[in-house]
Amino acid sequence: MLGCIALSVKGYPLRARHEETLSPGVIQGKIRALRMDWRQNRVAETTDWNALWKDLVEIKANSRKRRALNAEADIWADRAHDFKESVKKRWVRPDSSREFILSKIDADSTVLDIGAGTGAWSILMAPHAKHVTAVEASGAMIGVMRESLLAENIANVSIIPGSWPDVPIEPHDFSLCSHAMYDSTDLAAFIRRMVACTRRLCFLLLRAPSLDGIRVEAARHIWNKPFDSPNFIIAYNILLQLGIYANVQMEDTGLWKPRKSSTLQEALADMRRFLGLEGLDQYDDYLMNLLRRRLVCKDGQYIWPSEVRSALVYWQAGD
To answer: What is the pLDDT of residues 141-155, one digit of tens each?
Structure first.
């Protein structure tokens, strides 16, 4: 069992509703607030980890909205099939997370798959369970999932369109959310709803970035804190503040495959998107120097350092 991760900062007051699109000036204000809070680092005060998660989600969400021609458009409309294929390629190699979760499910159990995407987990679990309920907000993802269920001749998976935690769901024996919580501005409410709808075990799969990764290094410089995104470290501290002492297994596949960029300009654009910095060019010189220092040019491409792995977090509902 993982102990408390002892990092302490103040709460983060500069937050906006998730539906709003923040201007570059407001985003800059949020960044200044994050830097100030981290510099003060008052150990006596308790970190509001859920507020930190929310701030990071909102920065990224508003960055996506500024890029989109239609803020209400399904971001997976043109990418759902590609996403399915990427999961298929990644799952050619066995991993400890799938093995462990399948070992806990039995033939009489029901499973809730939150943020099911194109249905990879639902399809994987269906032969091992009595019934699987897949919750998914993207119409494009649901369309691909229906195609896959039909092709696999799977009849014990039902699909509920909608976003967690707002959809009405009856309790299930198990609940799973695999990397689909990063758009939720209130992870504490997300988790509480999981617990309320689970009789036995809850599972979360989260990205766990290395603290010496290039994106974490950028976050330390820009935000003065070692968090580049909503991730495992923040989520685990939210669980602790909810009184949930969860178990953790780091996936045995190790670090994810490194990213590649054709040019440094492409790498800079990718870094700005990831950190939600579009419209804020004052960090470009720093980021370009960082990329030149940390990326490796090989065969005409720039290779990013491997810096992320998957963490499986699980606990008994009701504990």
So the answer is: 999 999 999 999 999
Output the pLDDT for position 278: 77
Domain annotation for the chain: domains and CATH numbers: 80-257+307-316 (3.40.50.150)
User: What mean pLDDT, rounded, does the chain reach?
Assistant: 86
* pLDDT at residue 138, as a whole number: 95
pLDDT of residue 142: 97
CB 80 within 8 A of CB 141: yes
Q: What CA dihedral angle connects 18, 80, 190 and 110, to 10 degrees? A: 160
What DSSP line would sit under the chain, residue for residue?
Answer: -----------------TTSPPPHHHHHHHHHHHHHHHHH--TTSPP-HHHHHHHHHHHHHHHHHHH-SSTTS-TTTTTHHHHHHHHHHHTTS--HHHHHHHHH--TT-EEEEET-TTSHHHHHHGGGSSEEEEEE--HHHHHHHHHHHHHTT--SEEEEES-TTTS----EEEEEEES--TT-S-HHHHHHHHHHTEEEEEEEEEEEE-TTSHHHHHHHHHHSSS--SS-HHHHHHHHHHTT---EEEE-TT-SPPPPEESSHHHHHHHHHHHHT-TT-GGGHHHHHHHHHHH-EEETTEEEPPP-EEEEEEEEETT-
- Ramachandran category for residue 176: left, alpha or beta (phi over 0 → left; psi -120 to 50 → alpha): beta
The model's pLDDT over 225-269, given as tens digits with 9 standing for 90+, comes to 888 899 999 999 999 999 999 999 999 999 999 999 999 999 999
What gap in Å lies between CA 218 and CA 214, rounded to an integer?
A: 6
Task: State which residues of the chain have pLDDT below 50.
Answer: 1-20, 41-44, 69
pLDDT of residue 273: 87
